[in-house]
Inverse folding.
């Protein structure tokens, strides 16, 4: 169903739009396929690259952390199990002499300084009495609120406890440190050695970034998988169980973050948390580059498609114009070319065909005009013998029935009318000549018919010298006499010169039905012999078409019992050449 709809829509596209669409798809489909393949490849490469980089950096950080804690462990072993410091602590516990106590304390500080100064990564060091809560032999000034019970435990063993990153108890430092507390091997005393990392040791680890400058957050997990240190407490709060605790996995996804984990030999773990958007940064940059290339390629494709459509569509428009000009005789000949040999050859053929078509049309038009002229001339030849026979027949009967006066009058009118009728066949005349001939015709008809009728001719004086074809008025009046007028009949001929020459012949006869009007308009000219000299209304229509074409109008209005009105409207040529 969808394919049918798409096919239907495509069929409605113009040729120009089809070219652009197809060319667009030709460029788009390979580019999209290549883009998808590249996306899959780049995504795989970036995922492996980023994962490998993060895991490698995490291993380095874990190694630094292990070395830092091992260094603290080594120092604490020296101080907790060394013979010199332990012996001094036991003597101080038994000594009562003030002088000896001062000497022993100085010796103790000396021993501590030797160890701590030989290990630059060691910071605050002190001995802590768990029973009294007091501390002694500190190598730096201690904050007032020293309480190891509040420190975050990374891991605890019977004789040693590892504390996660916390604010240093060294009053002169506000940095984060790692620390350990180990029970000192002295008899009859609950004394513990507390040792912190030195300046910047923990900061370098906790504030480090990956080599590719991606921002990250670190977590430190104890052996149980609980978070003892978190740089992202919103998503990974302290003392909460890490999502992958107890699982032997080194990476995963939690919400909008990607994590990688490394576990030390002692059981704690270091976790690197990186937001997905950071990992997708390179991918997004690649997407942006691909989008820009895609836009560039598609603009080039559209430009090429428009160029191709112009190469094809413009010649087709030229063909369309040439075909339209085939029906316009006055269209200017066009010699423009498309500069494409195949199309130029077709244009040449069309122009040759156009020339031949109009030559053939002119030839046909000339033949039609000649044929029309021959038909009119034929009709004119039919008029004269037929009318002459009727008139001579009338003279014959009048000679038998009447005296010489009427015969003379009839003969005079007949001579004048014959002189007009036998003029140049198919030639023109003036309104004045046509009216004079009509009067002679009416004079003969009044003698011929045995009923009385009146004919009133009203002509504008300005119209008298206008040229019109011969035998326009006579057939119209003859039609009125033959088809409508009886005793006391009346025929009014009105000729007015306005924008056009308007001729109206009106009678008060019996009128005609629409069928009769149709018959008059379509009578064969040969049927005119039925009406004396009349040759029918069809003659008038043909003579008007021959001389004026479609610029003349001819109408008949008639009602039974209300007479008939025949109207003509002819163009006026005031010194202009008829075309």
């Amino acid at each position: 169903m969808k394919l049918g709809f798409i096919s239907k829509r495509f069929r409605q596209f113009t040729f120009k739009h089809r070219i652009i669409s197809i060319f667009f798809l030709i460029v788009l489909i390979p580019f999209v396929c290549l883009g998808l393949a590249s996306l899959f490849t780049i995504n795989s490469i970036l995922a492996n690259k980023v994962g490998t980089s993060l895991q490698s950096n995490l291993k380095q950080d874990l190694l630094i952390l292990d070395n830092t804690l091992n260094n603290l462990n080594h120092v604490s072993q020296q101080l907790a199990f060394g013979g010199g410091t332990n012996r001094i602590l036991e003597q101080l516990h038994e000594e009562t002499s003030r002088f000896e106590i001062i000497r022993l304390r100085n010796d103790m500080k000396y021993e501590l300084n030797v160890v701590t100064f030989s290990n630059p990564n060691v910071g605050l060091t002190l001995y802590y009495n768990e029973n009294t809560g007091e501390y002694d032999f500190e190598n730096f000034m201690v904050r007032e609120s020293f309480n190891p019970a509040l420190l975050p435990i990374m891991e605890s063993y019977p004789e040693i406890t590892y504390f996660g990153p916390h604010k240093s108890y060294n009053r002169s430092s506000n940095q984060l440190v790692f620390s350990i507390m180990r029970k000192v091997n002295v008899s009859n005393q609950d004394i513990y050695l507390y040792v912190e990392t030195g300046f910047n040791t923990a900061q370098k680890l906790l504030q480090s970034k990956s080599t590719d400058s991606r921002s990250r957050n670190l977590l430190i997990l104890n052996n149980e998988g609980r978070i003892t240190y978190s740089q992202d407490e919103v998503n990974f709060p302290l003392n909460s169980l890490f999502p992958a605790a107890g699982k032997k996995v080194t990476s995963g996804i939690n919400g909008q973050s990607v994590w990688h984990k490394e576990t030390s030999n002692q059981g704690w773990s270091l976790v690197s948390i990186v937001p997905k958007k950071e990992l997708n940064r390179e991918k997004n940059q690649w997407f942006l580059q691909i989008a820009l290339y895609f836009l560039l390629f598609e603009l080039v494709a559209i430009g090429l498609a428009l160029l191709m459509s112009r190469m094809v569509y413009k010649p087709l428009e030229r063909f369309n114009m040439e075909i339209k000009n085939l029906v316009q005789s006055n269209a200017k000949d066009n010699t423009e070319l498309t500069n494409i040999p195949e199309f130029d050859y077709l244009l040449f053929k069309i122009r040759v065909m156009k020339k031949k078509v109009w030559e053939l049309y002119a030839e046909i038009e000339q033949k039609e005009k000649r044929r029309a002229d021959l038909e009119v001339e034929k009709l004119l030849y039919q008029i004269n013998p037929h009318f002459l026979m009727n008139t001579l027949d009338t003279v014959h009967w009048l000679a038998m029935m009447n005296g010489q006066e009427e015969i003379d009058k009839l003969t005079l009118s007949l001579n004048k009318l014959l002189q007009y009728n036998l003029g140049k066949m198919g030639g023109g005349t003036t309104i004045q000549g046509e009216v004079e001939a009509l009067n002679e015709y009416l004079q003969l008809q009044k003698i011929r018919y045995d009923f009385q009728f009146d004919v009133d001719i009203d002509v504008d004086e300005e119209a008298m010298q206008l040229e019109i074809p011969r035998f326009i008025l006579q057939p119209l009046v003859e039609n009125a006499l033959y088809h409508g007028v009886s005793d006391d009949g009346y025929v009014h001929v009105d000729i007015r010169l306005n924008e056009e020459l308007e001729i109206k012949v009106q009678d008060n006869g019996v009128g005609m039905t629409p069928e009769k009007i149709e018959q008059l308009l379509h009578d064969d000219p040969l049927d005119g012999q039925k009406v004396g000299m009349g040759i029918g209304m069809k003659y008038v229509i043909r003579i008007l078409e021959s001389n004026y074409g479609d610029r003349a109008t001819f109408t008949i209005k008639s009602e039974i019992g209300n007479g008939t009105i025949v109207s003509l409207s002819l163009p006026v040529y005031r010194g202009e050449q008829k075309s």
User: Anything to note?
Assistant: The first strand starts at residue 122 and ends at 129. Confidence is low (pLDDT under 50) at residues 209-213, 525-534.
